[in-house]
Here is the input.
Amino acid sequence: GMQTGDIQMAMFNAYIYLTNNFISGQRHLSIVRKDLNLFGEQMVEYKQMVMNHLILPIQQVVSNLLLSTGEPPIFVGKDEEQKRILAQASSENNRFMASQIFIFGVVEAYIFGDYELAAALVQKRREIEQKIAKKSCFYGMTEFFDGLTFLAMAHQSNDEKWILSANNSISNVERYAKICPSNCEHKLLLLQAEMNSAMGEVEEASSKYELAVSAAERNEFIHEQAIANERAAEFFLRHDDPRACYHYSKAQSLFLKWGAQGKVDHLL
Here is the structure.
C-alpha cells in the first residue's frame, strides 16, 4: 500500500497486523506495545484517524496488562481518551468502532476478573451489532470471551439466562473449531470445562480443563493457556484438589511469559 500510494489500504493492513499480534498471544506484550505505538504514530502522521481510533482499545488493554499499578483500570468508562472516542463513534453513528471498543473491553474486564462489567459490555456490544451488517468474530475470540463471561456469571448467579447464553456461545465456537481446530480447539474445551463445572459435573470438568490446557499449549496460545490454567486452578481449589497449586503457578508463569505483569500482580 505504501509503495503504490494507497495509504488507506496500508494503514488498514497495519490494523489487521496489530490486532492479530494481540489476539494470537504469541508475541510478548512489550513488542506488541512497541508496534502499536509505531504504527499509531504513522496513522496520525498520514491522517488515518479511523484506523488510529480502532487500535486505541488494544493499546489500553496492553498497557494495563503490562504495567503493575496495584488496581489495573478497566478502560471502558474510566479512560478519558476512550470515553472521547466512544462518544465520537456514537455521534458519528460509527457502530463498528463502538463495537471494537466493547470487544476489547470484555477481554480486559474478564482477564482482570470484573465479570459483571464484562457482561454489561457484552450486552452493549450486542445491542450495537443488531444494527451493523458484519460482526467482528476475530477467529472465535469474541464468542470465546463472551462464553467465559456468561459462565463466570453463572457461577455467581442462579439465573438460567447465563447458561442459555453460554450454550449459544459454545455452539458458535464449536463451528469455528470445525473450520480451524488450531485456533479454537482449546477455546471450545475450556468453555466445555466451565460448563461442566457450572452444572456440577466434576469428573467431566476435571478432564476437560486438562485437555484445554494441553490443547492451548499445543496450539501455542500462551495467553489462553494461562487463562485455562487459571480457570482450572479455581475449579480444583473449589474441590480441595491439590492440583490447584500447580495450575495457579503455571498460570502466573504463562502470564509473565506473555508479559502481563499487571495480571500477575492481580493474581497475587
